[in-house]
Every structure is written in structure tokens, then in C-alpha cells.
Design brief:
Helix content is 84%, strand content 0%. The protein has 89 residues and is mainly alpha-helical.
């Protein structure tokens, strides 16, 4: 597999992982957005509840694992692009 095919595959993986992070984050936040109806008090409660959910949730562990995998994909993309740039010059 040449570098262009690897890059295309890595970009596809990056897009899928970003979509997964977005989905997991929306599950984590759930119905907390309704607290925004009460301007200042709602904001304080929203932040407090969200932080509690992030610290004590299996979803947050999943998000962390996906973000680590996304970081690896992005590093690999950067390596391949750097390799392509150095060979084309």
C-alpha cells in the first residue's frame, strides 16, 4: 500500500473517530443542556454536573480511549505527509 492510500485510510479513520467522540460527548452531556434555561444558576449547575459525570462515567473512559486512538492516527498522518514532502522536494 502506497502513502496516498495510507493517508486516505488514516483520514477516514480520523473522521470516524471524531464522529465517535462527538456521539459519546453528547451522551455524556445528555439532558444537562436544559439547565441553560436558568442563566447564571443554570450555568453553575450545568458545569458542576458535567464535571461529576466526566469524572465518574464509563463514557468518559471511552472518550479518552477514542481520543488516544485519534491522536495516534493524527501523528501517523503527520509522519506520512512529512515523508511525502521530503521525497517530493
Amino acid at each position: 500500500m502506497d502513502n496516498n492510500e495510507k493517508l486516505a485510510d488514516l483520514y477516514r479513520q480520523q473522521k470516524e473517530l471524531n464522529a465517535l467522540i462527538k456521539e459519546l460527548d453528547s451522551k455524556l452531556k445528555g439532558h444537562l443542556r436544559w439547565w441553560w434555561l436558568f442563566p447564571l444558576f443554570g450555568f453553575i449547575v450545568y458545569i458542576y454536573l458535567l464535571e461529576r459525570k466526566r469524572q465518574n462515567s464509563s463514557i468518559s473512559e471511552s472518550i479518552t480511549k477514542v481520543k488516544v486512538e485519534l491522536f495516534r492516527v493524527e501523528i501517523r498522518i503527520a509522519q506520512i505527509e512529512k515523508q511525502n514532502n521530503s521525497t517530493s522536494n
